[in-house]
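Quick note —
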Amino acid sequence: MQRLKTRSQFQAVLAGSTVARTAHFALHRVALDDSALGNEPVPAAMTSKQLLFALDDVWLGAMVAKRWAKRAVTRNAIKRQIYSVSADFEAILPFAAHVVRLRAAFDPKQYVSATSDALKKAVRQELQQLFARAPVQSHGLALKDRAS
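Predicted structure written out below.
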């Protein structure tokens, strides 16, 4: 699994579609090439997506805004959970670029500590629901042979 690193990669994925939502998270996905969408790619010129995502692999990024998680320790704990849970689901995710975005705050009255075991458990359970809800095939994306 490759990680998204640049702003342009994140913007490209967020311009794609939202494939799953939970109370606090949204999963965005974009195909890596136009052939996955049923269009004929232009062989002479590389598309911008091919330039952004050089490898044909599962790409993942995590967006946890200060608006929804005020403390850095909380944002980092949530991002660690995102990458950990996504590794469990890597085998069933199609070769595409994905972004998991926090879209609502966890109740600070319920989770008083910035990074408690209860918060980590709640985040992990919700992320597992998010990835379970994500369709394996979306917009013509198909799982590719991953025999190793």
